[in-house]
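From the pipeline queue, job 12 of 40. The input is one protein chain; the requested action is below.

Action: predict structure.
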Amino acid sequence: MKAELEQIGIEATKRSFHFFKREAASFTSFWHYHPEVELTFILNGEGTRFIGNSIAPFSNYDLVLVGQNIPHNWASVKHNSLEKQRAIVFQFGATIFTSFKECEDFTALFELAKRGIRFNNLTEAIVTRITHFEHLNSVQQLGALMELLQLLVFHEDKTLLTTEIYTYHHNQKHKIEKFARVNNYILDHVDQKLTVAQMADLTHMVPQSFCRWFKQNSGHSFITFLNKTRIENACHLLMHRNIPIQEIAFSSGFESLSHFNRTFKKYKHQSPRAFLRAHTVGFQSKKA
């Protein structure tokens, strides 16, 4: 899959912003960026979210604001569920409300969003504004978007996703396309053996140059990126598949159970078995 600058084209429409619902069997790998700010709400789905150099899980009611030209991608975990993955997406220019003095707080929010913002523990008011949005007329939607952004400005439980030193040179299109090809290849083959030599061949580079280039573009070494992605995949399998931990390790691309256990503990600060116990208890308490 080839990813590059996504042309939103708001200026060619009669709207000042884009709003749409995304529904699919799964969210496939699509590493891309655009100059518009994007607010994405996962109504139903689970997988791994990539925002700049942030690699983290997503699930139902995940809400993230992505700033201008920050590469991003939501990739669903592979499983046999027949349930559709659903997302609600808003896209708009960062200057959409600059002529309104009442909306000055939005500018600071959009500036913060250049690192990507996840909004935790959503209030009922935020969720209602998003889920009822499609039933409003165009004028009401504009007002509702302003109300939603105002709620997000004052929502205290926020997490910044990318590291402070992360930067991205969005004007170098050929670099984006090459990294997108590698990124998508990794996500599509995360359960298989992947080596620096393979990736170097894919990008027509020598291994040493590939490693340097990959870290510049992802913010992680290739091995760190690969292991983080594999561990997130394993976490989803642990929570949703009743299969042995050894099988989960192999299904996530690890060649030995000992390597899987060490890597899991490094990134999750607990063993796979402890993670499974904690999330099984949490899941059962939610059902109760």
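Job complete. The first strand starts at residue 17 and ends at 24.
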